[in-house]
Amino acid sequence: MIPCMCIVQDGQISSASEATLKSKLNAFAQKTFGEDADINWIKVPQRSGFTASKPSTSSIVTMRAPEPVNQDDRGPLLHELCQFWIAETGQSMNEIVGVISDPVAA
Question: What is the pTM of this model?
Answer without folding.
Answer: 0.89
